[in-house]
C-alpha cells in the first residue's frame, strides 16, 4: 500500500535524519516535509519504529497516512506554472 508521510520537526539534525530515513525506505519527497511511496506492511512497521527512535531525540511529530488505490486515482497536483 502507498503512504504519505508528513512531519513537523523543529530541530534541523533530527528533521534531516527523518528525511534521510524516508529516502532509505524508498519514499520520494513531494513537499519539503512530506514523502510518498509504497510501503509493504513489514517495511511500514520498521519505518514507524525508526521514526519513534528519532522522535525520542527531540520534539516533533510524524504522521503516516495510508493512501488506497481509489484515493491514488484522485490525486490532483496543482502547480503555479499550470494555473
From TrEMBL:
<comment type="subunit">
    <text>Homodimer, forms a heterotetramer with a Cas1 homodimer.</text>
</comment>
<dbReference type="Pfam" id="PF09827">
    <property type="entry name" value="CRISPR_Cas2"/>
</dbReference>
<keyword id="KW-0479">Metal-binding</keyword>
<dbReference type="GO" id="GO:0004521">
    <property type="term" value="F:RNA endonuclease activity"/>
</dbReference>
<dbReference type="GO" id="GO:0016787">
    <property type="term" value="F:hydrolase activity"/>
</dbReference>
<feature type="binding site">
    <location>
        <position position="8"/>
    </location>
    <ligand>
        <name>Mg(2+)</name>
    </ligand>
</feature>
<keyword id="KW-0051">Antiviral defense</keyword>
<keyword id="KW-0255">Endonuclease</keyword>
<dbReference type="GO" id="GO:0043571">
    <property type="term" value="P:maintenance of CRISPR repeat elements"/>
</dbReference>
<keyword id="KW-0378">Hydrolase</keyword>
<comment type="similarity">
    <text>Belongs to the CRISPR-associated endoribonuclease Cas2 protein family.</text>
</comment>
<comment type="function">
    <text>CRISPR (clustered regularly interspaced short palindromic repeat), is an adaptive immune system that provides protection against mobile genetic elements (viruses, transposable elements and conjugative plasmids). CRISPR clusters contain sequences complementary to antecedent mobile elements and target invading nucleic acids. CRISPR clusters are transcribed and processed into CRISPR RNA (crRNA). Functions as a ssRNA-specific endoribonuclease. Involved in the integration of spacer DNA into the CRISPR cassette.</text>
</comment>
<keyword id="KW-0540">Nuclease</keyword>
<protein>
    <recommendedName>
        <fullName>CRISPR-associated endoribonuclease Cas2</fullName>
        <ecNumber>3.1.-.-</ecNumber>
    </recommendedName>
</protein>
<dbReference type="GO" id="GO:0051607">
    <property type="term" value="P:defense response to virus"/>
</dbReference>
<dbReference type="InterPro" id="IPR021127">
    <property type="entry name" value="CRISPR_associated_Cas2"/>
</dbReference>
<keyword id="KW-0460">Magnesium</keyword>
<dbReference type="InterPro" id="IPR019199">
    <property type="entry name" value="Virulence_VapD/CRISPR_Cas2"/>
</dbReference>
<dbReference type="GO" id="GO:0046872">
    <property type="term" value="F:metal ion binding"/>
</dbReference>
Amino acid at each position: 500500500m502507498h503512504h504519505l508521510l508528513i512531519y513537523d520537526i523543529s530541530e534541523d539534525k533530527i528533521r534531516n535524519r527523518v528525511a534521510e530515513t524516508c529516502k532509505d525506505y524508498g519514499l520520494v519527497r513531494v513537499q519539503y516535509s512530506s514523502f510518498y511511496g509504497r510501503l509493504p506492511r513489514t517495511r511500514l512497521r520498521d519505518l514507524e519504529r525508526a521514526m519513534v527512535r528519532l522522535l525520542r531525540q527531540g520534539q516533533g511529530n510524524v504522521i503516516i497516512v495510508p493512501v488506497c488505490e481509489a484515493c491514488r486515482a484522485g490525486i490532483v497536483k496543482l502547480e503555479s506554472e499550470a494555473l
